[in-house]
Design brief:
37% helix; binds NADP nicotinamide-adenine-dinucleotide phosphate; TIM Barrel; two-stranded antiparallel ribbon; 11 helices; single chain; eight-stranded parallel sheet; alpha/beta; globular
Amino acid sequence: MALMTRTFALNENVSIPAVGFGTYLISSEDAPEVIQTAIECGYRHIDTASGYRNETAVGEGIQAGLASTGLSRSDIFVTAKLWPGNSAWGDAPKTHEQTLAECDASLERLGLDYVDLYLIHAPYGGAERLSQWRALVELQTAGKARSIGVSNFNRGHLDEIRTAGLPTPDANQIELHPWSQKPELLAYMAENGIAPIAYCSLVPLSTWRTEEGQASAKTEQMKADSAAFSDMARKYGVTEAQFLLRWGVQNGYAVLPKSLNPQRMKQNIDLEGFEIDDTDMAAIREMDRGQGVAWATGDPSSAD
Ligand SMILES: NC(=O)c1ccc[n+]([C@@H]2O[C@H](COP(=O)([O-])OP(=O)(O)OC[C@H]3O[C@@H](n4cnc5c(N)ncnc54)[C@H](OP(=O)(O)O)[C@@H]3O)[C@@H](O)[C@H]2O)c1
């Protein structure tokens, strides 16, 4: 086995490392050391968001990781996300000007001059959604984001951008794993040159978000099926987590495993040296159960 160093193209100038390190549910207390360790383990892609409320600590971890490995800023791919607001939650959608200011605030907290990818976290902007996207286009032109995209957008939200004659997103970050495969959305994205980035690849594991208060809409049936991929993984001599992550990368999705445990961190990027065969890939295609489970509040892509 060996470190996964593959990348996927996002636009003419930018490629995204196939394995990123997820930072949701990592506290500001833990983040500096955890992110430093992730970089030391070989991660070259860090996924964060203002909504995770840990950007300052993630930024400290990035600086510490660069210092301890001797890498430079350009060796690391950093994704940040705009929290768009959500009037359904009494949180006014961000305007165009506020979106520009939010990106500056994230850069300041992260201690960076630019991010490699800036995303609208969810399609919650309502009447401001296109203004938010126009602001991201400006941020890219200004060099504050090397690539831009969205997250949790459905086909209708993506079409809204296209119909407005605006540049299409470089990527759409969505929940993708064998139980949530979204084939129609992925086909539309492929037709329109929008790269998929997969979050929550590890949902089928029994160890996925087990701590008190961690959001999950995992059903009892899913919990009962928590060893669903262990036989397949055993066949390749890998862990279930490695199997699920490799499935994503083999499908052409960047994946974003999060772990606080250094052994798991190493395992989750150690994905070269085996290939899931066509029979198993075809069997998994039949295992789709529809929408995802990561947002306890319901599927964000169903927003108007
Ligand atoms: N755009 C969005 O709306 C959105 C939504 C959700 C997530 N994300 C991004 O995607 C990232 C990944 O999603 P996620 O953090 O929800 O879930 P995940 O990475 O799929 O799974 C993390 C869970 O699995 C456990 N785990 C990790 N590696 C393991 C291994 N090798 N063996 C057994 N258990 C393992 C972790 O526990 P330990 O920490 O104890 O190891 C944790 O409970 C996030 O951190 C975030 O950056 C984006």
